[in-house]
């Protein structure tokens, strides 16, 4: 029968982990797993016998392919007879045919979910931090090279080169695949958390309305976060990560209208939000608040957005302060853009032009206008100098600022330009709508 919803996400890490243990190489494991999955699809298209367990079937096929290639290489390179003999011993042949997989998930022999096991392997200290992220996002999280490059703000060629270097460095440093012991995993945990966060960030930016479970990278990130919480239930950063993911997914239904067009934050229908998921996310955020790390702060920000009954009733000054604290701990261009956006929202909500004209004195009006000018200048600098992902965010923020302060012509021109570079269709349609262009 065809691969069902959710089966592929479960099968893939099991296959890769089993093959990495068998071949001793994470690189080979990924390559032969992909080949086996392709063979499974071809087997079904040709009307072959139904596959009962994709993980077991693909692992068996991949092991045979790896042994066949190893034998061929041995003959071609005329390796020593004992190595050739090792590859052709009956026990090796039996291992290749064995479709029993090691236990996985919380009940596995090492108590570690397969995806987490692979993440901890990929985040080896022998690999540079930048290359670790690329390896983990590609092999475990399943992101494409263009998605990884966009997330990290680098060229695709640079991301591909980092992936190659990471695999080579891992093979040279460790020799063969092995899952690190708990003490090692504890040291690697911050990078693992960042990788899962990166996976969700890409989903949040590009997959606003996933077509099915296989395309729902955000839900897959939540599943990995759940596995992390199972192993580290009291870690404030782990709980903060899951809070951010839960609260982001809870608000996702309101981000797109019935025509598939993205909505601005002040246009969102908050009645569509998933209240159960919000409550669960707020529980995580409450526990995370015991810490003061990056994800504890991000969870607090997400909590304020999720708790607000309307755009105007959002506690923008508090969000601005939290973004300032986040910028101190994690000085990313994207965080700076987000802080400036929140600052602009705070000023615009207080602007008497948008509210009660008698609410403030003229001096206050002048100070608000001056503050908005400062925000706009800083966003323009980020639009010019920041990495592509942050530059695009700054452009969107500038367009929104022009739109909301009555400069609709300038805003429309900027939105037309943005529509040309938006990869996510809902965001492209949003930009076209504000530009006054009817989406095709």
Which tags fit this structure?
440 residues, 4 domains
- Total strands: the figure is 0
Unreliable segments of 5+ consecutive residues: 75-109, 354-363
**What's the overall geometry?**
globular
Radius of gyration: 25 Å
Q: Provide the residue-averaged pLDDT.
A: 80
How many structurally independent domains? 4
Could you give the distance between the termini?
37 Å
Q: What structural category arises from helix and sheet content?
A: mainly alpha
Helical percentage: 55-70%
Write up what this structure looks like:
The protein is mainly alpha-helical. It folds into 4 domains: 1-99, no CATH class; 112-232, no CATH class; 236-314, no CATH class; 316-381. Helices cover 69% and strands 0% of the residues. The chain is built from 20 helices and no strands. It has helices at 7-23, 26-45, 54-77, 81-88, 90-97, 114-122, 129-140, 145-152, 156-174, 182-206, 217-231, 236-251, 275-288, 294-307, 316-329, 333-350, 362-385, 388-404, 408-419, 425-434. Helix 2 (26-45) packs across helix 3 (54-77), helix 18 (388-404) runs antiparallel to helix 19 (408-419) and helix 19 packs antiparallel against helix 20 (425-434). The chain is globular and about 75 Å long. The two termini are 37 Å apart. The relative contact order is 0.06. The model is unreliable at 75-109 and 354-363 (pLDDT under 50). Belongs to the sigma-70 factor family. ECF subfamily. InterPro entries: DUF6596 (IPR046531), RNA_pol_sigma70_r4_t2 (IPR013249), RNA_pol_sigma_r2 (IPR013325), RNA_pol_sigma_r3/r4-like (IPR013324), WH-like_DNA-bd_sf (IPR036388). Residues 188-285 form the DUF6596 domain. Keywords: Sigma factor, Transcription, Transcription regulation. Residues 127-170 form the RNA polymerase sigma factor 70 region 4 type domain.
């Amino acid at each position: 029968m065809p691969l069902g919803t959710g089966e592929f996400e479960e099968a893939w890490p099991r296959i890769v982990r089993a093959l990495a243990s068998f071949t001793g190489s994470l690189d080979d494991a990924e390559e032969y797993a992909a080949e086996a999955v392709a063979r499974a699809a071809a087997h079904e298209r040709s009307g072959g016998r139904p596959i009962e367990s994709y993980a077991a079937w693909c692992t068996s096929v991949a092991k045979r392919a790896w042994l066949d290639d190893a034998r061929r290489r041995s003959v071609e390179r005329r390796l020593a007879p004992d190595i050739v003999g090792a590859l052709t011993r009956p026990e090796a042949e039996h291992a290749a045919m064995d479709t029993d997989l090691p236990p996985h998930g919380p009940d596995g022999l090492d108590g570690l979910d397969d995806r987490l096991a692979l993440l901890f392997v990929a985040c080896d200290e022998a690999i540079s931090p930048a290359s670790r992220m690329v390896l983990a996002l590609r092999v475990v999280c399943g992101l494409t090279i263009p998605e990884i490059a966009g997330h990290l703000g680098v060229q695709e060629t640079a991301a591909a080169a980092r992936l190659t270097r990471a695999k080579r460095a891992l093979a040279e440093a460790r020799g063969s695949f092995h899952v690190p012991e708990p003490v090692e995993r504890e040291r690697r945990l911050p990078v693992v958390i960042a990788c899962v966060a990166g996976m969700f960030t890409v989903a949040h930016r590009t997959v606003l309305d996933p077509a099915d479970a296989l395309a729902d990278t955000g839900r897959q990130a939540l599943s990995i976060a759940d596995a992390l919480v199972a192993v580290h239930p009291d870690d404030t950063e782990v709980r903060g990560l899951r809070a951010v993911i839960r609260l982001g997914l809870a608000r996702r239904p309101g981000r797109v209208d019935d025509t598939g067009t993205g909505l601005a934050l002040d246009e969102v229908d908050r009645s569509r939000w998933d209240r159960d998921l919000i409550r669960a996310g707020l529980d995580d955020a409450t526990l995370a608040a015991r810490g003061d790390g990056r994800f504890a702060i991000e969870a607090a920000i997400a909590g304020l957005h999720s708790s607000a009954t309307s755009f105007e009733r959002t506690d923008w000054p508090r969000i601005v302060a939290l973004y300032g604290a986040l910028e101190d701990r994690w000085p990313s261009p994207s965080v700076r853009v987000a802080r400036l956006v929140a600052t602009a929202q705070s000023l615009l909500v207080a602007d008497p032009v948008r509210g009660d004209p008698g609410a403030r004195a003229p001096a206050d009006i002048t100070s608000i206008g001056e503050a908005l000018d400062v925000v706009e200048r800083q966003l323009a600098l980020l639009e010019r100098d920041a990495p592509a992902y942050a530059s695009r965010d700054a452009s969107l923020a500038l367009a929104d600022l022009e739109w909301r302060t009555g400069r609709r012509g300038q805003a429309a021109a900027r939105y037309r330009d943005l529509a040309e570079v938006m990869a996510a269709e809902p965001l492209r349609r949003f930009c076209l709508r504000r530009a006054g262009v009817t989406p095709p």
